[in-house]
């Protein structure tokens, strides 16, 4: 399982330490090739392994190759964004999440990843907006409500939380 930890440089990050831990599902290996190029899927899974072992630079290179093989592979953009985030390249991570969202705006992992990167840049309201989208798309998913509430708590919007 992946664990996606926040950087402690942000004074608000204590709320997001648990948030990153709960986002274990942000990246996942693929077994089906119905939608994507088979070679791209194999490479994507290899990139996930690199990510899990903390080799984020190699993971970025592999996910870039996956995108070159199949530029519609939404999860590759998300995974590359997550890898860039781990290297504290938050703006670049957001660019990848935006590319994933351009392909499929109903991708909760891209909204979550983008929201967390925005938070690390100090854009709490931007993170809140991303989680509002996920809550709107998936109203039965409790994790997004939790993180949205944590952000609202940071903003001292206890009524909204």
In short:
65% of the residues lie in helices and 0% in strands.
Describe this structure in words.
The protein is an all-alpha fold. 65% of the residues lie in helices and 0% in strands. The chain is built from eight helices and no strands. It has helices at residues 14-22, 38-52, 56-69, 74-86, 90-103, 108-120, 124-137, 142-154. Helix 1 (14-22) packs antiparallel against helix 8 and helix 7 (124-137) packs antiparallel against helix 8.
Keywords:
0% strand; 161 residues; mainly alpha; 65% helix
How many strand segments? Answer: 0
Radius of gyration: 15 Å
User: Are there runs of 5+ residues with pLDDT below 50, and where?
Assistant: 1-25
- The N- to C-terminal Cα distance equals 29 Å
Topology diagram in text:
Layout lengths: L13 H9 L15 H15 L3 H14 L4 H13 L3 H14 L4 H13 L3 H14 L4 H13 L7
